[in-house]
């Protein structure tokens, strides 16, 4: 890698052209990735892409005047001091807030580059252009705000917020809730059946660990293989499967870990308290994100949990 201070004026201009082209394509990727769910925000990044294209055209014109047609290929990863940017095609789906924060960081880095490049330039014309681009990058954030004001009216922002919430529910809450419900409820019977049958906390703990981890693995694979998310919009299958599997295991481990306590009565009481907390959490999530009436959600969750809990006690006591 080369240090920035070792670059000649010709190489600095070539690097600036490369940076503007890369930023232009990144903003184009952002716009395309957001267009289906957040069309107004996509329009914001379309506007930013057009500005980067204008910057690159000005740099190209100056470079040709000073150094001719051949432009050496110099990329950011070949110069020390640049922050490496993760390609947008590796980040699917694109998060609206994450994309906006990344765009802001890109503008700050570009401005700092132009300020340093201008300070090193000996040519008046080159310095003038670099100073101008530094000022434009400084004002680019304000330009983005102006674009948002123009494109993202209050009603549009509300629609995008609703769309973002729907995606969050679809890709995170639903698979997580399915896993938590399965892990919390389905493992009640084997854990408490083993506890009442043996009156030994270690046996109940081992059974609970096996049931929780086994259910987590099974549910994770089942969710990941259910669909690839391309048509349903449910997100990357392995991310969705990972969320479901983790929450399934967590739901079962919650009332399993108290059986690490040696005293059977205390362990049983602690496990029952955890079950109540788990069922209350599931009820709140269903009410908060699935728009289920609180009483209805509580009735559904509690009845199902109690039935499985009683089943475990009856089998363990028989």
What does this structure look like?
The chain is mostly helical and 318 residues long. It folds into 2 domains: 4-152, Up-down Bundle (Ferritin); 159-317, no CATH class. The protein contains 10 helices and no strands. It has helices at residues 9-34, 39-67, 96-120, 124-151, 154-186, 188-198, 201-224, 237-254, 264-289, 294-317. Helix 5 (154-186) packs antiparallel against helix 9 and helix 6 packs parallel to helix 10. The longest helix is centred in the middle third of the chain and has 33 residues, at 154-186. The radius of gyration is 29 Å and the shape is elongated. The N and C termini lie far apart (73 Å).
Low-confidence stretches: none
- Counting DSSP H or I runs of 4 or more residues, the number of helices is 10
SSE series: HHHHHHHHHH
What is the number of domains? 2
The proportion of residues forming helix, as a percent range, comes to over 70%
- The gross shape turns out to be elongated
Strand count: 0
Arithmetic mean of pLDDT: 81
> How far do the termini sit from each other?
73 Å
Could you tell me the radius of gyration in angstroms?
A: 29 Å
Q: Main beta sheet: strand number and arrangement?
A: none
Derived from helix and strand composition plus strand pairing, the structural class reads mainly alpha
Q: What proportion strand?
A: under 5%
């Amino acid at each position: 890698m080369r240090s920035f201070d070792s670059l000649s004026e010709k190489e600095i201009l070539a690097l600036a052209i490369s940076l503007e082209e890369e930023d232009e394509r990144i903003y184009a990727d952002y716009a395309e990735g957001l267009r289906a769910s957040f069309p107004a925000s996509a329009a914001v990044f379309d506007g930013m892409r057009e500005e980067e294209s204008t910057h690159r055209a000005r740099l190209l014109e100056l470079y040709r005047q000073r150094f001719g047609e051949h432009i050496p290929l110099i990329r950011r990863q070949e110069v020390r001091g640049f922050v490496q940017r993760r390609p947008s095609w590796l980040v699917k789906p694109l998060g609206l807030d994450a994309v906006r924060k990344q765009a802001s960081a890109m503008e700050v880095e570009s401005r700092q580059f132009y300020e340093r490049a201008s300070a090193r330039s000996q040519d008046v014309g080159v310095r003038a252009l670099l100073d101008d681009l530094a000022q434009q990058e400084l004002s680019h954030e304000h330009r983005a705000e102006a674009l948002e004001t123009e494109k993202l009216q209050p009603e549009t922002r509300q629609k995008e917020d609703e769309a973002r919430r729907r995606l969050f529910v679809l890709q995170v809450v639903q698979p997580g809730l399915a896993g938590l419900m399965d892990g919390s409820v389905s493992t009640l019977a084997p854990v408490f059946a083993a506890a009442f049958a043996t009156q030994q906390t270690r046996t109940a703990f081992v059974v609970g660990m096996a049931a929780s981890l086994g259910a987590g693995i099974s549910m994770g694979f089942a969710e990941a293989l259910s669909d690839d998310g391309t048509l349903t919009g449910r997100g990357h299958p392995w991310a969705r499967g990972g969320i479901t599997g983790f929450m399934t295991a967590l739901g079962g481990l919650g009332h399993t870990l108290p059986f690490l306590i040696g005293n059977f009565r205390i362990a049983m009481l602690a496990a029952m308290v955890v079950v109540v907390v788990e069922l209350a959490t599931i009820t709140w999530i269903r009410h908060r994100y699935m728009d289920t009436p609180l009483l209805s959600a509580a009735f559904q969750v509690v009845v199902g949990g109690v039935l499985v809990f009683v089943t475990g006690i009856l089998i363990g006591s028989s």
